[in-house]
Amino acid sequence: MSSNNESIDRKRRSFLGKAGAAVATTVVAPGVVLHAAAPRSPEQPVTDAVRWGMLIDANKCASGCSDCVQACEEENGLNLVQMPEGADPEEWARQRPRWIRQIQLQDNLTGQVTTLPMMCQHCEEPPCADVCPTGASFRRADGIVMVDRHICIGCRYCMMACPYKARSFIHEEVEEKPTHTPRGKGCVESCNFCVHRLDNGRTTTACQDACRHQAIVFGDLKDKNSPVAKALESVKSRQIRADLQLNTGVRYSGV
């Protein structure tokens, strides 16, 4: 009898937990309740109801600032990798994994130099996925371009195909890594919009949170009321290499 009661109690708690996760309610006055849909739970499949994207205001990016780069490396464990003993520092600087690079663009007409962060642009038609022989490079339904490390064979075709030089290859063994960002020798990797955050209900990226100049706005491009959608409506923006017609998820203003 006790066993049956415990079983029923577990089922009841499981049902209430799922119900509570599905809908959040707020009582603002007697008889008035606001219902808000909760973020997608990890158990639910990814759908195309959302397309994650980002707007970067190059006018706000300060020359010499690396807050977004450091935040990305700390969030994903890239800062845990040490230069191998005996390695050439210049070669290591060129080859070490980086998911965000600070680059400078110069206007050929005016000579104006603009600093901006460059990462995976999360294309709607990603060239990296087109050339991948195993399907390790793929685009999720919500617009995030990723690498499946279990089937990546390290051929690096995707690195050659990416017009943004946004992918890195792991040359050395990875001794330390966060649980949410598995990394390993012989695999390609790149920015994934902090997918581990999004899949657990959060709605910001590490680089956005760290940017003290508020140059990065992230969110759902399909939601007209999202901060990123509103920002894109209010300023003139562009894609880097728009001529390739990749419909990138990352846009830039002030470029």
Give a short summary of the structure.
The strands form five sheets. A four-stranded mixed sheet has the order 10-3-12-11. A two-stranded antiparallel ribbon has the order 1-2.
SSE inventory with pairings:
Blueprint: H1 2-22, E1 23-29, E2 32-37, E3 52-57, H2 67-76, H3 89-95, E4 101-106, E5 113-118, H4 127-131, E6 137-139, E7 145-147, H5 157-161, E8 168-169, E9 188-189, H6 195-198, H7 206-210, E10 216-220, H8 227-234, E11 237-238, E12 250-253
Parallel strand pairs: 3-12
Antiparallel strand pairs: 1-2, 3-10, 4-5, 6-7, 8-9, 11-12
How would you describe this protein?
There is one protein chain. This protein is of the alpha+beta class. The chain folds into two domains: 36 residues, no CATH class; 202 residues, Alpha-Beta Plaits (2-Layer Sandwich), CATH 3.30.70.20. It contains eight helices and twelve strands. The strands form five sheets. The chain has a four-stranded mixed beta sheet with strand order 10-3-12-11. A two-stranded antiparallel sheet has the order 1-2. A two-stranded antiparallel ribbon has the order 4-5. A hairpin with a 6-residue loop joins strand 4 and strand 5. The longest helix is centred in the first third of the chain and has 21 residues. The radius of gyration is 21 Å and the shape is globular.
